[in-house]
Amino acid sequence: MRILGLDFGERTIGVAVSDALLLTAQGIKTIRRSKKELEELRQIIHDYEVDEVILGYPKNMNGTLGPRATMTEEFAEILKGEYGLPVLLWDERLSTIGAQRSLLEADLSRAKRKKVIDKMAAVFILQGYLDHLRIKSE
């Protein structure tokens, strides 16, 4: 079993996948939003034998939901219909900030950070969920 983590944005979708033991999240790629995004995700789901999808849920810092949360909910329904997999919305507050800090610590240039930030945000979202699973099972 593997879990797919997604950071759903207006222009891109960051993609990460768990290892088979559900311990770590690895960044896969950033998909440009287009008519082919569902085909690309289908191929990733097939290649990695994904059983569940974790989708970053963009809550405001005060816990309220805005327009992006509604778009994310709609995308979750599309994913459920397309792939027949469970899709869980996972609070993504501070995931992009965490990803930016990691990339800054790695001393990547601004141009390189821009290329991988969405993929790293997906890693942070998925790793947060995996850590939650591990703590819950202890």
From TrEMBL:
Q: What is its main location?
A: cytoplasm
YqgF/RNase H-like domain location is 1-99
| EC assignment | 3.1.-.-
The record's Gene3D superfamilies line, in alphabetical order, gives: YqgF/RNase H-like domain (3.30.420.140)
Highest taxon, organism lineage: Bacteria
User: Where, per UniProt, does this protein localize?
Assistant: Cytoplasm
SMART domains per the record?
Answer: YqgFc (SM00732)
Mind listing the GO biological process terms from this record? rRNA 5'-end processing
- Please explain the role this protein plays, according to its UniProt record: Could be a nuclease involved in processing of the 5'-end of pre-16S rRNA.
HAMAP family reported in the protein's UniProt record:
Nuclease_YqgF
Q: Which family does it belong to?
A: Belongs to the YqgF HJR family.
Q: Indicate what this protein is called per its UniProt record.
A: Putative pre-16S rRNA nuclease
Species: Desulfitobacterium dichloroeliminans (strain LMG P-21439 / DCA1)
